[in-house]
Structures are given as structure tokens and as C-alpha cells.
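During the reporting period the student researcher (J.K.) took over the structure-prediction task from the postdoctoral fellow and processed the backlog of single-chain submissions. One of the processed entries is reproduced below for the supervisory committee.
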Amino acid sequence: MGLPGNSRPLHDLTASEDRPTLTIQGGPNSGYAVQVTSGYTTLGRHAENDVVFDEALVSRRHAAIIETESGFLIRDLDSTNGTYLNDQRVGADDRALRNGDVIGLGRGSVSAVFTMSAGATMKRSLSVPGTEAVELVIDTRARQVHVSGARLEPPLPRKQFDLLMLLDSRRGEAVSRDEIAASVWPERPEGDVGNHEIEQAVRRVRVRIEADPSNPRYLVTVRGFGYSLN
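J.K. obtained the following C-alpha cells:
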């Protein structure tokens, strides 16, 4: 796997740098970080890509990381063996990237962790007509949640944070109760997580992040299916 000139060992990256990085997992370059310095960063096997992966299952032009006003996106460039985000294949639509996401190229033959620097927090501003913008920030590395600029204290318990992190990774999408059970309670593979247990976890998260838990703005119910984070 080839690395461009802006790559360096991960421990050489300083906290003052505010650009995201891709940290290579596996292979001879494991532990190296490539800084995402442009608004359109291409990944692939061909030497003209910004980040070159010399792997048989990686296409010549495999994927791209795109910077937008609201954050970073991952796009599959019609690759042969697929681009994956947290083990889920990226389809025709771009997918939002969040701190700690794992990008896989070519059926998991190589992967990289997308990481924001310590000085840059992944934020989503949610605007409601007639009100000021309200921020809900999920910091996956520190496992902390910020609402309207204030950090939740005490932090969310593990299961509640895992639930919120899952919904945040699929922001804007409806996530089924079965998916929530499998992701938040992986130690119980027999599928014995009841709807009541999930609903209880959702209620407890709402109490912590919503101004009015009975009329949620962020964590909403998708009737008959599951939940979504707006």
C-alpha cells in the first residue's frame, strides 16, 4: 500500500492540527495516518489517487472522501468489490462520516479509521423554525455527549451511549428494533432483548438529551419499526 507525502506515523500528529486523518489498519503500514487535506480525497490502487492502497481487491479509483459544509462524506466510485462503512456496504448514496468510523475497501481487504483531530469536534446543528440552532454532539472517542454546548454529567451509561452512538452513525435513517438489539446487546445473540427493554433505554436517553422528552426533537419513534436520530 502506497502512502502520499502528507502521511506520517500516527504518534507524530499533533493535537493542534484540525484536519481529519485516515489511520491504516493492518498490513505493513498499520498505524500510519494520512491527513485529509483536500475537499475531494480519492482512494484507490492507482498511483494518481490521493491515498494509494496497493491491494488486489481495491479498484483503481475505489472511493472518495468529500468535504461539505455540514461535514465529510464517503462515496463509492463504482468499485468492483465495494466500499464499506462500519461493515455496511455503501450504496449509490453518499454516507456521512463520523469520528471513529471504519472505512473498508474491497470486502475488508484493507481498512482505515476516520478520525477528527482533538481540536475539531464533529457537530451537527439542528435548526427548528422560530428557534436558535441547537447542537447535539456525539464524541465517540471520549464517549461523551454535548447538548447546547454543555457536556452531559454524569456521562450516559454504556448501553444508553451505545444506543445513541448507533443512531448517530445512521443519522436521519430509521433503525429497526432488531438492529438496535443486535448492536447494543451483542452479548445476547439469541434475540431475547424485548421491546420494553429497548423502549426503556430510549426513554432514559430522551430524559438526558431532550428539552421535552414527551415531545422529542432528536430521538424520534418510527412507529411500528424502530427509532431515528434527527
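The committee noted the following: Confidence is low (pLDDT under 50) at residues 5-16, 118-134.
J.K. will present the remaining backlog at the next meeting.
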